[in-house]
Amino acid sequence: MRRGFAAVLSLLLFGAPSAAASRPHVTLITDSVAGSLIWDASAARIFSHGFDVDLELGSCRRLTTTSCPAGRETPENVLELIRAKGRSIGPNVVIAVGYNDFPAVYADGIEPTLRALGRAGVEHVFWLTLRAARHPYLQSNAAIFAAAQRHRELTVLDWNAHSRAHASWFQSDGVHLEGIGAQALARFMHDGVQRVLVAPPPIEVSLDFPKATITPRFAARLHAAGGHAPYRFSVAGLPRALHLRRDGAIVGSPPSGEWTLRVRVTDVRGVSGTQSIGLAVSPG
User: Fold this and answer.
1) Rounded to whole angstroms, how far apart are CA atoms 26 and 190?
2) What is the CATH architecture assignment of 25-197?
3) Buried/exposed 125-145: b ≥16 CB within 10 Å, e otherwise
4) For residues 143 and 128, is the Cβ–Cβ distance under 8 A?
5) What CATH number matches the domain at 5-18+201-283, 3.40.50.10860, 3.40.50.12710, 3.90.190.20, 2.60.40.10?
C-alpha cells in the first residue's frame, strides 16, 4: 500500500491587514497654482485630512532649472528641494509643478527628479498634470504620462481632465485658482493619494489543499485576495521538510503532527496582511 499524507486545514484570522496604524506622511511640492493652499486654509485642511503632511508651497518654482523670482525670493527648484531634504522627505511625494517650465526642459527634468526621489527612499510619487489652458502644457502632460509607463512608483493625478469642465474654479488666466477651485484641487489630490495609500481592499489568504486527499508528496498553494496583485508570501512555523516556493506553493514530505502557520502576504503597493493557518498532517 502506498504511504501518503492526509492534511486537515483550518484558517483563522490572525489579525487585520497590517497597514501602518499611523497617518501616512505625504510631502506636497508646488508652484503658485497648487500653492493656493497657502492662502486657503480650508483647502489646506482638506488635503491634510488623515495625513501627516509637509507642505512645500512655493511660487514660481520650476522642476530642475533655476526658478523664477517670486517677490524678493527665488524658491528652490524641485530637484534642489529633494536633495536638500534627503530621506526626511518621506515615502510619499506629490509633485504639482510645471507651469513655469518650458515643455522640452520640463520633459528632460522628469527622469532626474524621479531618480532623486528614489535615492531619497520615496516609494510613491503622485504627479499632477497641468491644466492645459495653453497648448504647451499638453506637451508637458504627455511627458508625465510617458514617465508613468516607465515607472511603477509613479501615479498620474490627471488634474487637466478632472478640471476641464469647471471654468468657475479658475481665475481669468485659466490656471490659477479661485477659492472653490483651491478646495477642489485639494480634494482631488487628497483622494488620489488616499486611493493608493490608505484604501486598498483588505488582503486575505487561503491555502488550496483538497481535504481528505492522500498523496505520496504534500503539495499546497497559497492564494491571496484583495489588495493589488502580484503578491509576495512568507510563512513562519513550517514543519521540517516543507518548503515555500516563490510562487506560493508549499511542498515537501512533512512528519505527522499539527502546526500553526503564520502567513504574511504583501501586495505590490506594500500593504500587508497576516493570518494563521492551522495544519494537521497524519500518515495516509
Assistant:
1) 10
2) 3-Layer(aba) Sandwich (3.40)
3) bbbbbbbbeeebbeebbebbe
4) no
5) 2.60.40.10
Find cell 492662502 and name the residue: 39
Cα 221 vs. chain centroid, distance in angstroms? 27
**Count of other CB atoms within 10 angstroms of residue 277:** 23
Is the pTM for the entire model greater than 0.70?
A: no
Three-state secondary structure string covering the chain: CCCCEEEEEEEECCCCCCCCCCCCEEEEEECCCHHHHHCCHHHHHHHHCCCEEEEEECCCCCCCCCCCCECCECCCCHHHHHHHHHHHHCCEEEEECCCCCCHHHHHHHHHHHHHHHHHCCCCEEEEECCCCCCCHHHHHHHHHHHHHHHCCCEEEECHHHHHCCCHHHECCCCCCECHHHHHHHHHHHHHHHHHHHCCCCCCEEEEECCCCCEECCEEEEEEEECCCCCEEEEEECCCCCEEECCCCEEEECCCCEEEEEEEEEEECCCCEEEEEEEEEEEEC
* pLDDT profile of the chain (284 residues), mean per 10: 43 37 85 93 93 94 95 94 96 97 97 98 96 92 97 96 96 95 96 81 67 58 80 88 87 82 82 80 65
Question: In what side-by-side order are the strands of the sheet with 124-128?
Answer: 52-57, 25-30, 92-96, 124-128, 154-157
179: Cβ contacts below 8 Å, ≥ 6 apart: 40, 42, 43
Alpha-carbon distance of 215 to 2, in angstroms, equals 9
